[in-house]
Structures are given as C-alpha cells and as structure tokens.
Fold:
Amino acid sequence: MSDTDLQHLTPDEVELWAQGLLPAARALHLSQCPACLATAERERKLFVELAQLQRFSPEFGFVERVMAKVRIPTPSGGFKQ
Amino acid sequence: MRRYERPVFSLLYRMVRDRALAEDLAQETFIKVLNGIKSYRPEFKFSSWIFKVANNAAIDHLRRRSIDTMSLDGAPDAMTPNARAASALQLSDHGETPLQEVEARELGGAIDRAIGRLRPEYRACILLRHVEGYAYEEIAQMLDLPLGTVKTYIHRARNELRGYLEDRRV
Ligand SMILES: [Zn+2]
Structure:
C-alpha cells in the first residue's frame, strides 16, 4: 500500500467522486475507508439536493419591464428602446 | 435575456429571501448589463458577467441592510429582547401577507432554510457552484475572490449545510 492509499479524501476529491471522476487509485482508498465513504455519501446527498433546487420566475412581464428601461444601440448607430 | 431570467432571479431570491426585492435587484442587474453591453469584456463568459453583476447587487444590498438593522448572519439587531418579542407578536397578529405566504412556501423547504442560515458570501458560492454548476475558477472571477477563498467558503458552507440538515433529521 502506498502513502496516497492511506490518505483520507480531500473535499475536492469527494466532489470528483460524486461526479464519477475520482482516479481509480483514490477510489481504492474509498473502498477501504468507512470514514471517507460515510463522508462522501453524505456529501453526495447534499449535492443532489442542491442540484434539484427549484428555479423561480419573476412576476409576469419582467422582460418587458426591463426592456422599457434599456436603450440598446442598433447597428446603424442609433438607439432602439 | 429570457435564458438568464430564471437563474438570475432564483439566485437573487435565495440571496435576499424577498421576492419583490429580488425582482428589483434582477431588474437592476439586467439594466446594468444591457446598458453596459459595449463595455462587456469577452474574456468573461457572458453568463459569468451577469451573475457577477447580480451577486454584487445582492451583496451590496445585504451589507447596506446589515448596517441599518442587523448583522449579515441574522444576529439580532440593536432592539431589546422585549421590543423584538413585541414586533414578532405584531407580525403574528396581522398574519402573513400573500407575498410572504408565497415566500414561505417557495423557500420553506429544509435545504432552502439551511441556505438562508449561511453567511451571504457562503450562500453565493454554494449557489453558484452546486445549483448553477460553475467551476471554482469562474466563481473566483465572478466574486473577485482568490481561488483558495472560494474553495474554503464552499467547503465550510457544505459542512454547515450538512450540519443544519442532519440536526433536522435526528
Ligand atoms: Zn479515508
């Protein structure tokens, strides 16, 4: 067993693992370390909850309200409201 | 612009937890971005630029409010405990406005309540990373923070969130 096999996973490595990107050598540590596995699974659960958060919409007509206050330059050099 | 309307509004809403205010800040963001389109720097991804402006608007607002009334992490303001209790009573006497009811429904889930307890800087980082999916480097650029600081904020925010959520589950 090398030194890296014995080192616990860093938060960055836990994130890589949750994305399926952890190198095999470090994944080996995870399979042998109950502490890291427990942490990693708690983290993954949190990532899933965050990724599933609902997106909200502003009140109807938001874009029109913004555009009414913006002056966008036209290619001809003038402005359009 | 329609593409960014919901992500930007959602970020602001979760930052300030007030629908009307989030809409004002979202308007301010888009007006600033569209009026300043000529000064757009192409080394920035367009979406990063919008989120940068939006986040600045939210943090500025929260800082101003913290000076006026309370600290950023929601610590009690200068009111005496009795005055606080009285104002809380008044609120419950009058009930919630329809908008407050919508807010309570929309942001009332455990995870949103936990996010609401984070410091605004942590909140911004965690939302940009784990809700919007930006890379650490992009977040550092958006928030004008060193990369190491962004990582620290995100790791601390995750620990705090797990703590809040697990407290609730026991
Ligand atoms: Zn370990």
Confidence is low (pLDDT under 50) at residues 71-79, 86-92 of chain B. Chain B touches chain A at residues 1-2, 5-7, 9-10, 13, 22-23, 26-27, 30-31, 34-35, 37-38, 106, 111-112, 126, 130-131, 133, 151, 155, 158, 161-162, 165-166 (CB under 8 Å). The pocket of zinc ion is lined by residues A 8-9, 29, 33, 35-36 (CB under 6 Å). The CA atoms of residues 48 and 142 of chain B lie 6 Å apart.
